[in-house]
Every structure is written in structure tokens, then in C-alpha cells.
């Protein structure tokens, strides 16, 4: 008798089974699915932040496909631009934390220091690499405490590839892309037609049929929230696309990406009334809703109640660490 076996709970066995049975994920096929299961709207949305990034390196096709397999309502991504103007899914403006760029001798001389949102940052910047060069890099886990076995197996994907993953899913899967660091991108990347980063971002969404206000027929077919920490970008794209937008709010020490406004300025009732003309909701950093101090949860702030009083949804970011 080996008692330890008897006490393995059934769900653990199931997890083990899933871990071993899990295939590796290529980009999906273009096959059409006729009657797709609609987006659920009876409970809060489950938004997969950078894909299933606890398991598989963030912002890769494999991480997004895994999130869909696990039941995410939306897949979330950060959009940046390459030197030659391609829109890519990548979180940091530097490649250092989540790719093998530091090991690539041919790129050793690409290291730079640029000002990014009020700070000087040194590293290998996405805006100094063409899409072709970016595609040669291999993505890895951001944190050492995560599963490292998928490091080096997947590449950076484009915004269009990300959209195709959502549209090719066998049920309705929404997308939740962020216009990332727009001031920095517009400073370093120029498009031949004179358009800005935010215009290119919207052009891509329109090209794939994304449109319609929250809960409209078009929106239910291809659900989309556009998110940004930069209020001027949100106001700009509101003239170009009627899809719902979410204003992101970082920790109380962080200023807005474009207008350098403080947390207190952008969460005042006056400001919520202003930004509420352009967005359906706020995406506040979770510690601004329930602050934590010395590993204890503190009483909640009044942010959710005040957002709701302004008829704004609240999509907290993010519950992964
Ligand atoms: C960044 O570095 C440059 C050159 O050393 C300096 O002129 C600039 O003030 C720095 N910017 C910030 C925000 O520290
Ligand atoms: C941003 O605002 C802070 C606080 O008012 C100020 O100290 C800082 O100089 C500002 N930065 C820029 C680049 O305007």
C-alpha cells in the first residue's frame, strides 16, 4: 500500500493529464466556423493579460491560444511599432526582459538610451529593429519563478497575427489591445503616409471589421476594447472608431504617459466626467482599488463607487502576480 497515491485529489490528476497531453500551438488555420458560441455577458469578463503568460512566454501566439483554450473571454495585448512601422504585440519598449536579444552578437551595437515617459531607459529598443529582425528573436519568460521550458520556442507576433488568432477561434473571443507608449512611438517611428501610430492602430482594427459601440450587434460579433494610459490618444481615436475605449490608470505614483498628469488629477470627479465622454470604463491598477500595505489588504478606496457614479465600468489591472 502506498498511501500517498490514495490522497492525490482528482483535480491534480486532471492537471497532470492536461500538462502532458497539451500540444504545442502553431498559428491557427483560416478555416471558417459557421455558428460560433457567443461572448458570455452574464458575469464579469475574464481577460487574459498578455495571454496565458503564467504558463507560456507573454504575448506569443502560443500564450494566446492557451488562454483561449482555458476559456478567456478576451485576449489582451500591448501594441508597439517596429522601425519600419509594423505593429507588433510586445509589452516593453525594450527587448531585454523577454527576448534573447542580449545574446545576439549581430545586434550588440544596437543598445541605446532614450527618454521614455519622463525617464531615461537603456536597452535594445523595438523601434531600432525592423519587423524582419524582430521575427528572428526568441521570446522568453519575464520572471525566473515561472516555467522556463518554453523559452526560445516562440517569436514575436504582429497585431494582425494576434487578430487572426481571435477571429479564428472556434467561439467568439474578444480582443483588448493597448496603444502602448504612443508619445515614444510617434517620436521614433514615422510612416510614409504621414499618419500617426494611433491612426495605424485604428486602420488595422477597421481592416479586420472591428466596429460598433459596446453591446451592439457588430460588437457582439467581434468584441473589442481599446485601452490606453494616454488620454490624448483616446480622444484622438474616438474620432476614428466608435468601439468602446478604456482609460488605464496606473499606481498612484505614476503620471499619465502623454499629459504628465498625476493620479489625483485623473481620478477627480471633474476628470471622470471629462474622460467619460470618450470611454466606457476605467482600467485601474488593482492596488488603487484595494491598497495593500505590509502584505495586508487595506480598506478599499472610493474609486469603484465614483467610477460607477459616472456610469463607467471598472476593469481592474491585473491579477497575475
Ligand atoms: C536623459 O539623459 C540626457 C543625456 O544625459 C539628459 O540630457 C536628460 O536630461 C535626461 N533625461 C531625464 C528625464 O533624466
Ligand atoms: C511632470 O510633472 C511633475 C510634477 O508636476 C514635474 O515635476 C515634472 O517636471 C513634469 N515633467 C515634465 C517632463 O513636464
TrEMBL record:
GP-PDE domain sequence ranges: 44-321
Q: Name its GO BP terms in alphabetical order.
A: glycerol metabolic process; lipid metabolic process
Query: Which EC numbers does the record give?
Result: 3.1.4.46
The family database entries (Pfam families) matched by this protein are listed as:
GDPD
| MF terms (GO), sorted A to Z | glycerophosphodiester phosphodiesterase activity
* The keyword Hydrolase is assigned to this record: yes
Record's family?
Answer: Belongs to the glycerophosphoryl diester phosphodiesterase family.
Name the record gives this protein: glycerophosphodiester phosphodiesterase
